[in-house]
Q: What sequence folds into this?
């Protein structure tokens, strides 16, 4: 069994990743966003989710979070993968 290297992140890096514009991160992944007014966007590939700035909300369950949370909870990445994707490392 291979031991995985555990990435260490600073508080500043984590804060910066949480504050990244979620729309930009998702568009880099190739997801299609549709403006729904008031700087809100819907995601074609994930119906029921609304995003604005660095925040998302799932309409039916009222679950919500920041950019890191979306990549972990909705896309299925682990924390390190999400951080690397957001910060493009």
A:
């Amino acid at each position: 069994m291979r031991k995985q290297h555990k990435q260490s992140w600073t508080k500043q890096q984590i804060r910066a990743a949480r504050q990244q514009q979620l729309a930009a991160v998702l568009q880099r992944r190739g997801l299609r966003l549709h403006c729904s007014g008031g700087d809100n966007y819907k995601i074609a590939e994930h119906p029921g989710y609304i995003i604005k700035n660095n925040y998302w909300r799932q309409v039916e369950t009222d679950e919500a979070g920041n950019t890191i949370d979306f990549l972990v909870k909705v896309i299925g990445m682990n924390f390190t993968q999400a951080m690397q994707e957001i910060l493009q490392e």
Notes: The first helix runs from residue 11 to 19. The chain has one domain: 21-87. The helical segments are 11-19, 22-28, 67-75, 79-87.
